[in-house]
Amino acid sequence: MKRKRRPDAGRGAAFPGRAEASPPASPSIGSIRTGVPPHGASSPWWLHPALWAALAAFVLYLPSFGYGFVWDDHRLIEVNPALRSIKGMAHLMVSDFWERGGLESSGMWRPWIIFSYWLDGVLSGFQPWLYRVDNALCHAAAAALVVALALQSGFPRWTSLAAGLWFAAIPAHLESVAWISGRTDVDSALFFLLALWLDRRDRRHGRSLPGVAPLAALALALLAKEAAVPFVAVVALAEWIERPRSERALLARARWLAPYLLVTAIYLVAHRVLVRAAPPGMELGREMLERGRWALWLAFPGYLQFLWPLYPHSAAAGLKLPLSPWSPSVLLAASFQAAFVVALGVLAWRRSAAALPLGLFWLALLPPTLAMLTSSHLFFSERFLYLPSAGVAWALAAGLAALVTRPTWRTSVAAASALLITSSAAATVQGLATWRSDEAQFRAMVERHPGNFMGHVLYGKWLIQHGRAAEAEQVLGRADALFKDHPEVLTARASLAFGRRDFGAALADAERSLALDSLPLPPALIKGSALLHLGRVAEAEPYLARLLAQNPNYVPAWALWGELLVMRGRLEEGLSYLDRAAPWQSRDVDLEWARGVANAQLDRVPQARAAFQRSVEIDSTFYDGWLKLATACHLAGDLEARDRALARAASLPQSADGRVALLRERLAATPR
Predict the structure, then answer these.
(1) Number of folded domains in the chain?
(2) pLDDT number for residue 290
(3) CA–CA distance, 74 with 589 (Å, rounded to integer)
(4) Does residue 630 belong to any structural domain of this protein?
(5) Of 15, 112, 213, 223, which shows the fewest CB atoms inside 10 Å?
């Protein structure tokens, strides 16, 4: 007697048209298996909800197109000469993401982002507007894919649209979209979601293996950011939910996952070969490191609070470090995450519609969480929520679809959805202005989160760079109160003292910072420079020689070594180092001063004049720079420029030493 085949048995039931099956009672991932067509498949393209979600995402960020480069944008793009040539760009694509002539080692490899920075720069003349348009377009495409994934799961058009609109408007996305350097999260998430959508499409079409398109999208997601590594786990979850539970299905799952595992393995090997591991920095400091490990448990509920529109959103939001692993906040957060994982497991076992999007949310949070566990840094920021929030938005579509099955709830559910979307959009519009400049961004960090230690340090450094020493002192004082004698604060104080030309205090603070953590290079740089300015050349020479030997590609070390060689009278050799460093350090007064001195002593008047001119353009209060510029202009025969330089020097407080009058007399008696 023939056994009847169950409608849902075997692989055929997993795809449209392969077997007869009853549709699920409510929208679920099962609607893909039973052949329910995507909602709105026959609607005009201009009514497609994905298009409207994309338009909303793009329009929200229109005001940012006139903003400038902010924060890390300066180092990654604005003053990065390697991006100005194909050869330099190609080198960066096979190097550490943060390599600026070896300035930093981050352990990150993101060649797609480097290529996109180069392409935007070529097309815009390295102006920030196109970079920002690019970010907004990619964000719009990601919002459209959220809608597409929801429709692909069989959810109604309006719930899918609500999910896409909310994803477009989440204010936690400001750090990823409004910040050019946040592109890593946007592009990686875009290709991740595209790969997932293409993967499920191939499954629906009955393929035995995924096609080239989802594999290529996964490769681009990985090349944009390491956060895409959990893709294989997300697809494995989808396979578990969608395929029937049998030995044959297990083999089919393994065969389906194999190409994705291969792409991920190739990426990880290339990453390992091309980029060395990041040094174990001490962002938390030795005493705070253990508390930072305990804070790991607080990250999960911390990310959830970012989704709330009324949260005081800002970049570099910090976690409040617990006093012990048994603090109530740690125990509560750990219990909450454990309950979430258990609930996720139950949903996956039952093949619930919410299992895959919630799995995407949790799995996408694993990379920054594991990074916190294995390093001495707190990898916690709103930008890390960009990809996980796509899972939350997708789950929102599932939740709304389930709620509207009750007719009496439909009006309330629609009103609540509209309120969530509009309040999120309003918060995004309000927060967008904080990304217009460095000052606005750093000030927002400390105003919105007074306990944000890093915000105070960044704002203090910005104030120092712009000559606002008194304000910087106050801001750094607040940072010191949050983390007493932290290396970052001591380094900032050393920089403040250096700017005041108090080289003794700068040296003392730099040495205190290095005593707490000998790895960071900025305090080492300040120490070497302070030794040179104090005339302790014999002491500076072996110190800088070691620094350069240990970090042969460290651009500031080239500059300091060049300055030392000029002071030693080795002019040509010193200029070779200074000229190599100059394109990378376009705002270094001391470097330009040393180049001017060396060229002047070599009787290269035009080059000397150009270097002294750049030094006073960088720092208009540089008294010695104006004096040297006046001399160079005189020797070049430009008496009008000479007199302007002398007048500018005479207007500075340092002119009380009488050197302006003496130089004017000497130049008057010197033939041109």
Answers:
(1) 3
(2) 64
(3) 18
(4) yes
(5) 213
Positive or negative, the Cα torsion across 157, 159, 162, 167? negative
User: Can you give the pLDDT at residue 42?
Assistant: 59
Asked if residue 571 is part of any domain, the answer here is: yes
Give the count of beta carbons closer than 10 Å to the beta carbon of residue 225. 26
Instruction: Identify whether residues 400 and 497 lie together within a single domain.
Output: no
Nearest CA to 312 out of 212, 190, 446, 406 is that of 446
Residue 34 · residue 121 · CB < 8 Å: no
User: For 76, which DSSP code?
Assistant: I
Residues in the chain: 672
Average pLDDT score, the chain: 84
Q: Quick one: 513 and 563 in the same domain?
A: no
- Cβ count within 10 A of residue 371: 18
Cβ contacts of residue 477 below 8 Å, gap of 6+?
none
- 511 and 573, same domain (yes or no): no
Residue where one domain finishes, among candidates 398, 432, 466:
432
- CATH of residue 576's domain is 1.25.40.10
Using alpha carbons, select from 500, 520, 524 the residue that is nearest to residue 511.
524
* pLDDT tens, position by position, 48-72: 999 999 999 999 999 999 999 998 8
User: 209 and 177, same structural domain?
Assistant: yes
Q: What is the pLDDT of residues 323-353, one digit of tens each?
A: 677 888 788 888 888 999 999 999 988 888 8
Q: What's the pLDDT tens digit per position in 535-582? A: 898 898 898 888 888 877 778 888 889 999 999 899 999 999 999 888
The last residue of one of the domains, among 541, 562, 579, is: 541
Q: Number of helices and strands (H, E) in the chain? A: 33, 0
Residues 132, 125: contact at Cβ < 8 Å?
no
Q: Judge if 249 and 140 occupy the same domain.
A: yes
Whether residue 531 contacts residue 539, with contact meaning beta carbons closer than 8 Å, is answered with: yes
At which residue do the structure tokens 């990150």 appear?
108
Residues 535 and 574 in one domain: no
Quote the CA–CA distance of 120 and 138 in Å, as a whole number. 13
Nearest to 397 by CA among 51, 42, 193, 151: 151
At 667, list the tokens: 């130049």
Same domain, 563 and 640: yes
Q: How many CB atoms lie within 10 A of CB 407?
A: 7
One domain for residues 535 and 504: yes
Continuous segment of H or E residues that includes residue 213:
helix 212-224
Judge contact between 629 and 592, C-beta under 8 A.
no
- pLDDT band, residue 583 (cuts 50/70/90): confident
Q: For the whole model, what pTM was predicted?
A: 0.83
Q: Which domain holds residue 268?
A: 35-40+49-276+292-432
Phi, psi values for residue 657, rounded to 5°: -75, -5
Residue 619: pLDDT over 70: yes
Q: Which one-letter amino acid corresponds to residue 160?
A: S
* Residue 547 maps to a domain: no
640-664 confidence digits (pLDDT tens): 999 899 999 999 888 888 898 898 8
What is the per-residue DSSP string for 630-645? HHHHHHTT-HHHHHHH
Distance CA 238, CA 222 (A): 20
